[in-house]
Backbone:
């Protein structure tokens, strides 16, 4: 699994900043990425969000 920390920006909800998350994968094992550089991730709380991949850092 791909583990990341979501850094966020000034518009990000404070409870999501600095939270660890996992990339959501397809059945083929690839990460779900958008055309604009976004990524679908699942936080440890179980919430699934589309976030900017530039704001993710590998653990």
Residues:
């Amino acid at each position: 699994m791909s583990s990341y920390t979501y850094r966020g920006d000034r518009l990000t909800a404070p409870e999501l900043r600095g939270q660890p998350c996992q990339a959501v994968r397809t059945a083929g094992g690839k990460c779900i990425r958008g055309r604009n550089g976004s990524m679908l991730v699942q936080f440890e709380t179980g919430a699934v969000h589309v976030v900017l991949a530039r704001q993710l850092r590998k653990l």
Summary: The mean pLDDT is 95. Residues 3-58 form a domain with the SH3 type barrels. fold (CATH 2.30.30). Residues 40 and 50 are 5 Å apart (CA to CA).
